[in-house]
Structure formats: structure tokens, C-alpha cells
Amino acid sequence: MFGIFPCSNPFRLLSKLLVFASALFLGIISAPRSVYSAESINRIIATVGSQSISELDYDDAQDKYMKLSRFLKNEDTRKTLRSRIIDFLIDRAVVDSISEEESIQVNEKRLESEIDKRMEMMGISSRKQFEKAIEGSSGMTYDLWYSELPYQIKRTQLMQYKVPNIPPTEKDIRAWYNQNRDKVGFEIQFRQIAIAPANDSISEESRIHKEAADIRKTVQADPASFSLVAGSPRNTDSTLRARKGLIDWVSSFELFKTSRSVAAAVSAVPVGGVSEVFRDERKRYCVLKVEGKRPTPLENVRQGIGNLLMREKEEDNFQKWVKDQRSSVPIQIFDDAYKKENKIPEHHETFILD
């Protein structure tokens, strides 16, 4: 406070303070009520519920807003930067006000508890390692992330108890599926011939490799013969032989979990094509033919897409809810530039913001 009155002599400083206090007192008792009201809100931009937003708050928020701007959605870039920052402060104050009504409190102990929980979930015991991991995953500095943590905790709890949960429609799910077929993976139908060596000798390995190479040459020349060979004694896997080598539709992910070598071979072969000879995890020499590939059916990924869309819409739903709550939280605006830009009548002090 003393920085307002730079002075090296404490007695002069005290006299200045007394003069300032006397002038302020005389101004208050002599001014008309309207002037007193105006002066009492000097440098106050807005009030939200019981909270006030001052020019000092605005100055502090500018740097944070600029750092967070690339993470913020639904920003109205047609507005001036000042209006956007004031909206940012009002929205945060609305969240604080409603959190207080709902007895959602975030103190230092709660923050540390949240960090401990996240470290445990991530399997990290070192705080420095955790800070680096947070910076890598969030794209923020740790200090910025930590300053946002109280808001994020309140947001999460309000979304659980107050914000309507709007599930995606069937139309939304189908639209996402149609636009992202390459992201949902694919299913494969193929035939496989597997030949197991009788022993680990070099001569046996050489013999089996030559036989597999001969089979590949035969079926590559006549792909229609693959099922005949796969169902013959030359296919030493009895289970495959009984099905003429057929592996019916299986997802690429499930195939990868079962046999990485087969998954890798299948991924490199077009429909109707025959693979090179390769060895699988059971040390068998294999050849396969891809009968078909298709995107993973919608029914198999419907729930996953629905969950993804829910997460994507969470922030949109929350921001919409905050805007709606402005009608239930008393808000007063005292910033002339903001009132002019947002076409707020001068004679209205309390109103509902769009």
C-alpha cells in the first residue's frame, strides 16, 4: 500500500496519508449519493454475486488468458480482447459462486490430495517426474497447470452433479464413424498355412522353409488353390486344416494381441494377395492369403465412439451451462467499454448476459 506514496521520510508519509484520508472522508460526506455510488465502485469492473472483479484482477488475468487461449473453446473472437478477458473473469467468478453454494471447497490440502491421486494413477512417485509428465501431457508449464487445478476440480464436481449429461445421438455416432473409418481399425478375414518343423536341426529347418516357399509359389500362381492346399496334410496345423485355413473376421487389435507376426504379415498384404513366408511365435513357417478387409463394424465400436463424443462435448456442455447460470447469479457491470461493446443499456446495472 505504501508504494502508492513513494517517500523516504516516514513523517512526511504519515502526513500524506492523513491528508489523503481527510480528503476522502470530506469527499464522501459532501458528495451526492449518485457521486458516492460511482466513487465507491471506482476501478471495479464488475461484481458477480458477492465477488468483485477489479482492474487489478483484469491486469493479472491478461497474462493467464493469453497462455490459456489456445486451450479455450467457443471464444468469440469478434469481441475485443478486453471484453473476452472480462467474460473469462465473469465465467470463472460464476463457477466460484455456484461452487460456494454447493459447498465445493478447494484448499491447499485438497490440491495436494488431488496431486497425490494423479501421481498414484500414473504410477509416479517423484514430484519432479510428475511435473515433467504434466507439462508433456497438458502442453502447459507446471505452474500454469497448478494455477488452473482449483478451477478444474470445481468444474469436474459441477459436471457430476449440476451439468446436464447430454449423450450423443445415433446420428452423431454414425457421422463420426463414417468420417473416421481409418481410426477405428479394421477386421481381416484370411487363410493360413502353417508348417511346423519336426525338430530343431538345420537340415529340418531348411527342408520346411523350402516346402513353404514351394507352397507360396504354387498358390501365388493360382490363388484359388490356396484353400485346397490349406485343407490338405501339407498344413500341419490340424485346427487350421479342418477349416481350410480360414480365420474368420477378426479385429486387427485382437489379432495383434494373439500373434504379432501374423498381424504384421496381414497388414502388408492387399485383399486377394499372398504373403511372404514368415515364422510365427511357435517357430512355424507360414504363408497366408487375405480374403477380405473391412472397417471394424459400427456395433463393435459404438460404445467407444459414444464415450469419445461425450468427452469431446463435455467442455461445450459445461460452457453452455455456465452461460445459462449467468441468469441466476447477480451480475453488475461497471466497465463502460464492455457495456458499449455488448450493448448494455446505461440505466441497467443488473442484467442477464448473453
Structure commentary:
The protein has about 350 residues and is of the alpha+beta class. It is built from 15 helices and seven strands. The protein has a four-stranded antiparallel β-sheet. Helix 12 (about 250-260) crosses helix 13. The longest helix is centred in the C-terminal third of the chain and has 28 residues, at about 300-325. This is Putative peptidyl-prolyl cis-trans isomerase. Keywords: Isomerase, Signal.
- The helicity comes to 55-70%
Mean of pLDDT: 83
Which fold does the CATH topology of the largest domain refer to?
Answer: Triger factor/SurA peptide-binding fold
Structurally, the number of domains stands at 2
Concise overview:
This protein has about 350 residues and is of the alpha+beta class.
Identify the notable features of this structure and list them briefly.
3-stranded antiparallel sheet, Triger factor/SurA peptide-binding fold, single chain, 4-stranded antiparallel sheet, 15 helices, 7 strands, 56% helix, disordered N terminus, alpha+beta, 354 residues, Chitinase A, domain 3
List the helices and strands and how they pair.
Blueprint: H1 10-30, H2 33-40, E1 44-48, E2 51-54, H3 55-68, H4 81-101, H5 108-122, H6 127-138, H7 142-161, H8 170-179, E3 186-195, H9 202-221, H10 226-230, H11 238-242, E4 246-251, H12 252-258, H13 260-267, E5 278-279, E6 285-295, H14 298-325, E7 331-333, H15 336-341
Antiparallel strand pairs: 1-2, 1-7, 3-4, 3-6, 5-6
Helix pairs in contact: 3-4, 4-7, 8-14, 12-13
